[in-house]
Write a structure and sequence with these properties.
Elements lengths: L2 E12 L2 E13 L4 E6 L5 H8 L7 E6 L2 E2 L5 H10 L1 E4 L11 H11 L5 H10 L15 H14 L4 E5 L7 H18 L2 E5 L3 H4 L4 E6 L2 E3 L1
Parallel strand pairs: 3-8, 3-9, 6-7, 7-8
Antiparallel strand pairs: 1-2, 1-4, 4-5, 9-10
The protein binds adenosine-5'-triphosphate.
Length: 219
Amino acid sequence: MVLSLRSVSKYYETAEGPLTVLRNIDLDLGTGESLALTGESGSGKSTLLHLVSGLDRPDEGRIEVGGRVVSELDDRGRAALRRDVVGIVFQQFNLIPSLNVASNLGFHAALAGRSNPAWEKQLSERLGLTPLLDRYPEQLSVGQQQRVAIGRTLAARPSLILADEPTGNLDETNGDAVMALMLELIAETGAALLMVTHSTRLAARLDRQVKLTAGRIVT
Ligand SMILES: Nc1ncnc2c1ncn2[C@@H]1O[C@H](COP(=O)(O)OP(=O)(O)OP(=O)(O)O)[C@@H](O)[C@H]1O
């Protein structure tokens, strides 16, 4: 099992009192499996991704990722988790503006001690980035930036990829093409995928689908 959540709950303090965002969530994801997480705006999808990646902590319950108990890790342990085990593809890319495409592509792999020039070359070719390797993020279209963000995550070969609306900034045709390529490449690396999407059409392309409603999972 790459990911397991047991009785995970998360609350936020608000001016109106405590808000329960996730209630008693149980969820498992096996090696190489892909799961789509859907749900209305505000249902807790991003919060769940933040907890799994160690960007935020649950108030109750246990989260295990790649054999590490995330809910018990300190800040250093959670940073190491994101460096070594988990790869994140955000809707807003988070590319490094001062680095060119080639350096952005290899950045996480280098941090994780898993630089592999042959794999990076293959990724840049298959993602159509080879002619763009010397450019900087601001010189790229949105679709090109998204392909760099996907390549950067895959280059580091994480065991679990978390993606938050990874094609949300692309039109349907480009979004579908990038999604197909992303799923193909992820399948080749054997990574598991947990993807947040509003689109039931995209969700249907993954192995399993779960829906969050008022902080609970409905399948
Ligand atoms: N730091 C915070 N403090 C208080 N409330 C928060 C905080 N972060 C999120 N929330 C609330 O938690 C709920 C879940 O937010 P979350 O971002 O996880 O939803 P989501 O399903 O990802 O929504 P969307 O699809 O719109 O991105 C929302 O009601 C939101 O207002």
